[in-house]
Amino acid sequence: MSAHRRLTVMTFNIRGFSRRRDGANSWEHRAALNAGTIRRHAPDVLGVQELRTESLATYRRELPGYACLLGPAAGNGAPGEFNAILYDPARLELLGTGGFWLSETPDRRSASWRTRVVRAANWARFRTPQGLSFLHLNTHLDHLSGLARVRGGELVLRRVAALRADGDLPVVVTGDFNCRPGSVPYRLFADDGFQDTAVAAGSGRDTGPGTFHAFHGARRVLLDTVDGVRRARAPRRLDWILLAGGRARLRAVGHTVLRDRDPATGTYPSDHYPVLAALTAGG
User: Fold this and answer.
1) CATH code, domain carrying 68
2) Residue 217 belongs to some domain of the structure
3) Per the database record, which ranges form the Endonuclease/exonuclease/phosphatase domain (predicted)?
């Protein structure tokens, strides 16, 4: 597959809402920058986490070229937040979509495993103009309960296995996993045959630049790196793009943590950096 046939995938926890204490980091101050980051890097498909009413309105206005699959409502309030999948219908054909909740009762809105927040997964099947079909699943594991992260990861893998039909469909999983490489959820995916695109397309190491920076950018990432050295822990690379290549041998040929910010104001699009992977088939 030549360069112009590459499939580009993004994962982005957009922090698509505002709290009273956010000040300069309120969504209204980040909205244009956030949408501009997506528009500039132009992924074929992206999984976003923490999409809410105000950010959905921004995306519908600023990103009209993307179709949006909201998926099941997560969060505890109404109308909730969404692990939405956005895709370019000029580049991808939608074949099917669905979702489930990360709980012991995944077919109804619910929470389990010591989490106080309802979590969900959203999936879609696509076909490229070159005839490559693949499954994309987007999720957001719990931020507090380690048990919920493990059980949620196990549930995602079971559902992916059921959705792969003949068992050899390429699968891309995006999300904010709220844990580091090397953690139990990370190893679950690795043991099931998923590659971390950061490792596959990069240095071959599962450490690397952190993706959660709490609106502090490189300063926070540097502190996490120093802390990681002191505590023998990896930086907070919480946002992953995972790949099981299937019979098409879909593989990662590029991976970038996008450190976008407004140079004039110092504002960041989110409290997480987006991640972009380039994939190609065959070879």
Assistant:
1) 3.60.10.10
2) no
3) 10-272
